[in-house]
Amino acid sequence: MTEVIDFINGLLWGSVLVYLLIGTGLYFTIKLGFIQFRHFTHMFSVLAGSRKSSNEGVSSFQALCTSLAARVGTGNLAGVAVAITAGGPGAVFWMWLIAVIGMATSFAESSLAQLFKTKDADGNFRGGPAYYMEKGLGRRWMGVVFSICLIVAFGLVFNAVQSDAIANSMHNAFGFDKTIVGIVLVVFTSVIIFGGLRVIGAFAEIVVPFMALAYILIAFVVVAMNISELPAVFELIIKSAFGLDEAAGGALGVAMMQGIKRGLFSNEAGMGSAPNAAASAAPFPNHPASQGYVQMLGVFIDTIVICTATASIILLSDLGDTSGVGGIELTQHALSSHVGDWGGTFVAIAILFFAFTSIVANYSYAETSILFLNRDSKVMVWIFRAAVLGMVMFGAIAKSDLIWNMADASMGLMALVNIIAILMLSKYVMIVAKDYNKQLAAGKTPTFDSAEFPEIDKKINSEIWNSKFKK
């Protein structure tokens, strides 16, 4: 099994995805007129009104928090440490790069998710890559392939990664037995995931902003304590990223691959996961592109802000020999070296909240895919919930290296299918973005009317976007 996983990872990350992710990000960046730079402040303007919701779905802010709950987790605290350990400080630069250009990719996939969303039997909005593959491309088989990849990646493997990080951090900080930690996680996870999509959104809305702000504040304190060393750290990152540092000579490819892999795992831009949360929102303003802006901001917060906070904590520390130390343990040791022993405890608590919210958000993504495969099967959902809880337990007691390799393979397959789809649907992204910006420039609050675009109207749920049905 290990050999098969290694072969898949080598093929995807060595030959295909590195170029496809960067190329797709650059394509949408250029086609959308460098939207992540030109409309940077507008992302915050849209977010300001995003707490408004209706009984048809979660608010845009809750959708952002749900996507951040999945994004902000092990990848931000343990994944950054893994990238630095394996690829050197230069990996951080490639994480930044894939995030900046990935913001445009995120805009594209999240706008498409809103455009092609539908309603389930309970009146909740559902959507995401599987739905825009079926409705936009007319290729249900492609949506089925993507759904299976997402169910394996997010519902099963990624949740094992999150519980692995929680169990390790709790063991390192408090000496807790990993099996006991796993059992407790299973109990609390079951309480949330059996509560439904809106419970997940409400839970994420409370927990994620609080823990993210607390973690960022601690990182700012660490940076302030070591402000004189910051220029040297940035110089080290840049030199290492391009193989210019003597210690990193010949390691350019490793730094790039590690930075892009860990960056994708963290911010998920182009992977096709966040669009599932984006589709669940009743957006404000009432336009598909609004959720594109909100989710674009999510990529920025995740990687440029939170991952950089972790990288600063690690690279500004003076740990000496860290051989044999990696992942969450390295982050704990690094913060403890700055603020004392309580730093390791704080990281353990942070990863507990971050990774736990990732587990429940990951589940919500996978549930959407389950319902895409069989819209009327409640039994399948219940069986899947049991499988999720089993993987949470497995992750708490399994070997970390195997879990991370499985995560790389599953997210690589997901991203490959999704990127092909959004490139094929790029004309719809441009139509939506142009319509939004035209109304914005005219001083209007953008509102999408699919009746003005017959080519789109015949492929989507007209009751959601056609003015004839909304009156």
TrEMBL record:
Q: Which UniProt keywords apply?
A: Cell inner membrane, Cell membrane, Membrane, Symport, Transmembrane, Transmembrane helix, Transport
NCBIfam families linked = agcS
Q: What is this protein called?
A: Alanine:cation symporter family protein
State the source organism's domain of life: Bacteria
Annotated organism of origin: Moritella marina ATCC 15381
UniProt membrane topology term? Multi-pass membrane protein
Which spans are transmembrane here?
Answer: 12-30, 77-104, 141-160, 180-200, 206-227, 296-316, 345-366, 378-397, 409-430
Q: Which family is this sequence assigned to?
A: Belongs to the alanine or glycine:cation symporter (AGCS) (TC 2.A.25) family.
